[in-house]
């Protein structure tokens, strides 16, 4: 395991590669693994194909045991937010939906109440706020089309009380 000015030798393929081609260790997070990303990917694929059910079960178990790490990774990957960003947004909204002003009531697979959904513009990626599952689904089903939602509101207003 030689390190030469931002380069390192992979212990599997024996190539000297830039440090960027090595993932960081999960524990510690600052030291690179001994094998490059390509070799690690090959190893992981072989392990998965050998017993996919075991690997799926192992991943599902880890996700259940580490919900905050899963949420942190999803927020960063999908919206560019940190967990602190999310918590600040939730606090600013009183932990309530930005549309209906209610707390989330939908339960996830684990049985616990879900977190508010991050609402974002699908064209620009800009985060708009946090919504309950019901309001988030409603916007999605209407393709975020303001006119459809407005006409829906007018329709309901016209029929309020069961009569026109």
CATH architecture of the largest domain: 3-Layer(aba) Sandwich
Global morphology: elongated
% residues in beta strands: 5-15%
Widest sheet: strand order? 1-2
Helix content: 40-55%
CATH homology-level superfamily of the largest domain? His-Me finger endonucleases
Count, helices? 6
DSSP, total strands: 4
Instruction: Compute the number of structural domains.
Output: 2
Descriptive overview:
By secondary structure, the chain is mostly helical. It folds into two domains: 28-65, no CATH class; 66-157, His-Me finger endonuclease fold (3-Layer(aba) Sandwich), CATH 3.40.1800.10. The chain is 45% helix and 9% strand. It contains six helices and four strands. It has helices at 37-50, 52-65, 67-79, 83-92, 133-141, 146-158, and strands spanning 7-9, 16-18, 117-120, 127-131. A two-stranded antiparallel sheet has the order 1-2. A two-stranded antiparallel sheet has the order 3-4. A hairpin with a 6-residue loop joins strand 3 (117-120) and strand 4 (127-131). The longest helix is centred in the N-terminal third of the chain and has 14 residues, at 37-50. The protein is elongated, with a radius of gyration of 23 Å. The relative contact order is 0.07. The mean pLDDT is 89.
Helix-strand layout with pairing:
Elements: E1 7-9, E2 16-18, H1 37-50, H2 52-65, H3 67-79, H4 83-92, E3 117-120, E4 127-131, H5 133-141, H6 146-158
Antiparallel strand pairs: 1-2, 3-4
Helix pairs in contact: 1-2
């Amino acid at each position: 395991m030689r390190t030469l000015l931002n380069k390192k030798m992979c212990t599997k393929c024996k190539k000297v590669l830039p440090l960027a081609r090595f993932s960081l260790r999960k524990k510690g997070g600052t030291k690179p693994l001994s094998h490059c990303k390509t070799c690690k990917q090959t190893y992981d694929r072989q392990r998965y194909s050998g017993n996919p059910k075991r690997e799926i079960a192992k991943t599902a178990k880890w996700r259940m045991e580490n919900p905050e790490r899963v949420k942190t990774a999803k927020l960063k990957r999908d919206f560019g937010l940190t967990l602190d960003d999310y918590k600040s947004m939730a606090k600013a909204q009183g932990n309530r939906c930005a549309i209906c002003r209610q707390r989330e009531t939908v339960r996830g697979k684990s049985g616990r109440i879900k977190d508010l959904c991050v609402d974002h513009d699908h064209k620009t990626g800009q985060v708009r706020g946090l919504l309950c599952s019901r309001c988030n689904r409603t916007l999605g089903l209407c393709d975020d089309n303001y006119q459809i939602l407005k006409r829906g509101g007018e329709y309901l207003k016209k029929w309020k009380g069961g009569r026109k």
